[in-house]
Fold:
Amino acid sequence: MSGETRFATITRPADATTSPAIGQGSQFVGLYARELLRTFRNPWVLVITIVQPFMWLAFFGNSFAAVPLTELEELLHIQIQSYVQFLLPGVLATSMLTVGMFGSMSTIQDKRFGYMKRILLTPTRRATIYLAKALGSASRGLVQIPVMIAAALVFGVRFNGDPLLWAAWILSLALLGFGFSCMFLAVTASSTDWQTPGVISNFITMPLMFASGALFPSVNFPEWMRVIANWNPVGYTALFGRAVVVQGVAHWNYLGYVAIFAAIMVTIGTFVASRYLKAE
Structure:
């Protein structure tokens, strides 16, 4: 067999070349699978992801255990079984705030250890890397949901709502986590400093958490905090979940607001990452 024949047998035909869209799709799946594997291969990250919101529910949720239910309902402006029932949707919503921080920290780790440089040397687009990171972070946050629901059942919470409403609630949490993951990753796209994600997270998380209605109803807020709450996607996600869990109803406009937030963040983030995501 001649050298030309041997070369022809191992060379990919020109018409078998995959399109850019198909190529980016397969690379996205591979990068997203890597993000999921990194989550489950690191037990400490997984434990912290689960335990942190559980501690909120266990300690903060039971801090009003001695308050008579009638007084608590008057304070919270809703009929509930316990404060844990009121708090559960809010804790899950606020926990989706922090998932983006872990995604941005893993991105900086990839830069520091040279993995990002190797990926950027391939035909993989920056936007593909960015979207895989963001979706991986949001998926990590969803691990908390079954654990928190089981914990709430242990604390005696009885749930309302049909499976469709629960699916919509989980979708709202996924959209919120995806939106904030996109935001965090866009802000830290050009950074290689380990401290940057933590500093940005602390700066963003606290005001959005306390000015959201996730822990207490916004009707009790001063006027300036109500302004923040009126534009806060964390609050709308908490309100949507609370209506499902407590009342068995859905306010679909809240879900629409969270979807708009996620769409805006992914659009801005993809643009920023395409231009400014760098290896070092």
Summary: The two ends are 48 Å apart (CA to CA).
